[in-house]
Design goal:
Shape of chain A: globular
Structural class of chain B: alpha+beta
Strand order of the largest sheet of chain A: 3-2-1-4-5-6
Oligomer: heterodimer
Number of helices of chain B: 10
Largest sheet of chain A: 6 strands, antiparallel
Strand content of chain A: 35-45%
Number of domains of chain A: 2
Number of domains of chain B: 2
Number of strands of chain B: 24
Largest sheet of chain B: 7 strands, mixed
Structural class of chain A: alpha+beta
Number of strands of chain A: 18
Radius of gyration of chain A: 23 Å
Amino acid sequence: MVDTEYVVKKLLSLGADEVSVIYVEREMKQSRFSNSKIDIILNYQENSLSLFLSKGKKTFFTTIRNFNKLESHLEDFVKILNKMPENKDFVGLNTKKQSYRSHEPDGVLMNMDDLNYFSKRAIEGAQEKGAKRVAGVIYHFIESISLSTNYNNAMDKNTGLFFSVRAFNENGFPGQSAFHTSDHKMLDDYDPYFVGEEAADYASLMGTPKEGKEGKYDVLFHPLCFGSLISYSAPMASAYNVETGMSFFTDTLGKKIGSDELNLYDDPTMESGVGFRLFDDEGTETKKVPIIEKGEVKTYLHNFSTASRQKTETTGNAGIINPQPWQPVMGNGRRSFDDMIGDMKKGLFIVNTWYTRFQDYRNGDFSTIPRDGIFLVENGEIVESWKGIRISDNLPRIFSAIKEVSLERMQVKWWDEVMPSLIPYVWVENVNITKAR
Amino acid sequence: MDIERFLMDIEKHARYGEIRIMRLKRNMLIIKNGVISGIESTDETGFAVRVLDRNFSFFSTSNLDESNLKKTVDRAIKTAKSLDKREIKLSEEDIIKDSWDVSETQKIDDFPLEEKVSHLIDIDKNLDSIGVPIRMQFLRDKITEIEYMNTEGTRINGRLPSIFYYYFIGVIENGNFEQGSQEFGRSGGYEALKEWNLIDTTIEEAKKLKKIALGKKINEGKMDLIVGPEVSGIVAHESCGHPMESDRIMGREAAQAGESFVKQNMIGERIGSDKVNVVDDPTIEHSFGYYKYDFEGVKARKRYLYKNGKINEFLMNREFAGMLGQKSNAAARSSEWDKEPIVRMSTTYIEPGDYNLDEMLEDIKYGIFMNSFTEWNIDDIRFNEKYVGREAYLIENGEIKDPVKRPVLEITTTGFYSAVDAVSRDLKFFAGTCGKGDPMQGVDVWMGGPFVRLRGIYMR
């Protein structure tokens, strides 16, 4: 355990002007499985001390993990700081005294770490629904964070479980499902067994897919799939990325970039998700931040420096260099997924996607590759499954073409593609589908 | 740290074990539109132990106290012995005792921060002076020190310094936006900056982007195509290197990066024309993906993945080589101390042929020359892929003509390699960070190739 308050005082006494010190103790366990068997159990123990120091406009970041010579390290860091060039964009840390919400990690989940059991449940659930092969991963973590700056001290402890299951049918075609939670009660509905079942249901529906056909289609996105698009979009709302000009959010503040149905928040206050954060890297208390409401861009994500430069308030999203979203949440609609798909005359239902890449960050031109369940819907029924297609479109156009979002939302997180988020099913009109020729 | 005692404990209780102590020293510098937005230095050492008994366990820790390490090793042994039994037979490999190093002409530890900053500021000023409004640069040096030991007696110490540079620029011409980015990487010291000639390279790129921003889209249809080394490199990496990774082929990556269109029994099957040879080689000196021994202590060697247009050799670690009854070809890598070793590429490239670019151009009546790419992606079995041209031109009657805006090649892996009818003598490498694994591991790689000509390709 490192005393962050002491480290701040020491660094200030050595000559730093402002300091942010974050000490993290984390133990993460992981079970990986494939071909319906556990491949390996992994365990990661990490103790890290992340330091940000400034003197005037001079700034310096470092992280250390071995604390035996902490005192002499601190002296060295201030010497390095004194030699730094100036960061003209740096304004300062948040000077305002914060009062943090109270937060208690889920006590049941803290002790719920038999990942072998969870993996077996996921495999059994998928097999029960006919999966021939099952792969996936289950993570459990416990972490404690203490932060001190010149102006604030904060502590938090959190725990969570996140997992994804990919099931393959007898023809080798997959379905996927994924979930995250920091609340054990949610496992009543999202036990790994049920997540395995959902993945296998999609795999079963895939049967032997046909080659997809190019064209413009209405697409009903599964939360996992739209969560992926949101996970690429939300970081672009960072004021730093906007200032750089590498974002389709550039010059959109107060403007409409989506339909009335699109409401997008960054909500690290949602305690049921593993993206929960009590405070940001500058010690600012986090809050629910409206990024887009009724299609209109309401705010960018700010730290203290970007907010000061743009004459607004920090949103509690530091990253001291680059503000970041913690846990994207989309607003929900009025009707269920079943009602929505029942109303679809002709379109596609897509479960997941990956490899989203942009040919034009500024305007949002991109493509992404649907996977793990692509279904042609006609007159409200799934009539066949597809493979080999790509969405080649533009993100603001997709946001503007959102026809409806569902009543139900899912907490999804998958690999590095989908951030911990809460997302509904989303119906988008006239999505451009291409394929290899 | 009494590592030998830990290894003896593992040997006593389990079938196999290995310990890795890895020190990573990194310095990073970010410059955004002329402003130094971040300077970061880290120096961290971590401990990882992997044990095989009834199954594998992998434990890592940054707490290097003797008592914690002992506890970590004990837990790894206990876990590996308590899991359901899985049939695992590691390939038999030589016992190695060696140490290796990559030389630095301008040592990273001696290279002053002021010089790094002034070099990047110079690049930024030059770009600004010709009207480039969006300018991001990232420079990182890294020294990786690895101490590897296993219960079979292998003991290896390695030291790998490397430099990485990345730029992203955007231009706006008559309201048309165009973006360009490139990664540069090399193992060794700061002599890399001189080799890369970044001021001229970035200026040249910006000037090209300004022309391309005013280029026209092509009329879609079938035509001939020449791709440059940057494009042939990404194709080699995505549609040969990845599908030839044995862990994908055997399903271990199924839930994340996916599987492969290549199956275990496809060695010798035709994948393209006999002009196609794709290699992965970790032993190229000063390459970004260089290593002398992999992270299972196996000596690195050159691998022909596709040979004369046929599937030739998978990338293998000891687990999958053992499963296939072969020797490992040293493809196990870990990006950091707290990551398990998995099957990875190093430097993957299409092998040069015997043409020159002019010969390849001369009998093309109408086609596209795609020298570099921007957006790209590929499906999770590595079969359906897309490459959008960044620097690209029309070819008419054997001559390179006007720039064309973002031509799209959307093709299958076999479609690409089967259409290859000529490969140039050139060979150029480009750096990249290859992502795979869960948690994600980004490893340093090179990818490259010559100019490659394809006949009768659908472009849009």
